[in-house]
Amino acid sequence: MKVFDLGRVPIKSWANEVEDEALQQAINLSNLPFAYSHIALMADAHVGFGMPIGGVLASKGVIIPNAVGVDIGCGIVAAKTDIKNIDIEQIENIVDKAHRTIPLGYKHHKNPREWKGFNNPPNSKVVLQELEAARYQLGTLGGGNHFMTMEQGSDGYVWLMVHSGSRNFGYKIANYYNKIASKTNKETGLTPPKQDLAGLYIDSEEGQEYFTAMNYALDFAKENRKQLLEQFYNIFRQETNSTEIIQKISIHHNYAAIETHFGEEVIIHRKGAIRAELGELGIIPGSMGTPSYIVEGLGNEESFKTCSHGAGRVMSRKMANKIITREMADQAMKGIIHKGWRGDLSEAPMAYKDIKEVIENQKDLVNPVVKLTPLGVVKG
Hints:
The chain has helices at 20-30, 88-101, 125-137, 167-188, 205-240, 317-323, 326-332, 355-360; strands at residues 2-4, 11-13, 35-46, 53-59, 62-63, 75-81, 147-153, 158-164, 200-201, 245-252, 254-261, 264-271, 273-275, 281-284, 292-297, 306-308, 337-339, 366-379. By secondary structure, the protein is α+β, with helices and mostly antiparallel strands.
C-alpha cells in the first residue's frame, strides 16, 4: 500500500501505478469537506466519471450519486456446478445457444418478467417512470464489459459466472439524482462545480429518496443476475446433465452503504469495488481471456474492508479499439470459445491489467480460494 498526502485527507493506494487523471480524481475526493479518514484506491483503480473506478469514499452525512456510478448494483454471481469434465463440443453448444436465446446488448425480453419487487416500488418519480420498461429488461445481459462465462475451477469443478447490473433502470436513476444534486450544489456549494461530484445530504428529502431508489436498483440488479444465471444454467444443464448448483456467490460493486469504520458511522461509496469483510467470499474477475478468482475477505480496515472488483482497465475503450487488432485479440483468446464481440475490441484481454499482479497487490485484503480459468465466454 502506498500513501499520498496530497489533499485534506490521505489517499491510500493498493495499485502499482495510478494514472494522472485517476489520481487527480482521488485528490478531488480527498479535499471534500465531508470525506472521512482517507480515500482508498484498489489495485484495479483507473479513471472513471467524477470518481476513479476502484475507488472507495467514506463520507460523513453526504451521498454522491456519481460516486456510486451509472450502473447501480453492477456485480457478479458465480455458481459452482456439480460438473467436473466438459468437452469442447459441449462448450461450443452452450455458448452458441446462450448467445442466441438470452437477450444481449440492447435487446429485451418480448414478454414482461416476474419479480416481487415490481409490486412494491419506492415513491420516486424516475423509478415509477422506468418501471414498465424494467419488466422487459429483467434477465438481460446488456453490453460493455458484461458477460456470461464457463470457468474451470482449481477445485476441479466447472463454474458459471454472470456479470451484469441494473440495466437502463439504474442508469436513469443515477442521472436523475445527479441532476438534482448538481442543482442543489449550486445553492449549497457542498462540492466544487466542475468535478462531477455533486452530493446530497443523506438526511435531506432528496438524499433519502436517492438512497431508497439506489437500494431498489441494487435489488433489481441482484434479481437480474439471478434470472440470467437461471437461463444460463438451464442451457448448461441440458447439455451436461448437471443436476445441481453446489455453491453460489453473489456480489455487487457499484453502491453506497451506511457502515461503521474506525468507530464512526459513515457512508461508504464503493465504485468498482467489493466488500471484503473477514471471511466473506467475493469474486474478482480478470479479463475474458485470463483467470478470475473466488476470494475470501480479510476485513482490512485500511481499505474500509474492501477489495478490487476485477483486473481494471489499462487503456480506455477508445484507445483499445485504436491499438488492438483483431489478430491480437484472437491470439489472446486462443483456446477459449467465445461469441458476442460485435467488432468492439475494447474488451480484449490486453486492455486490462495483469490479474495476477492485481491479486498480489491486495494480499493483505483478500485470500484467493479458487482460481477460475475461462472455457467459454458470451459477451453482450
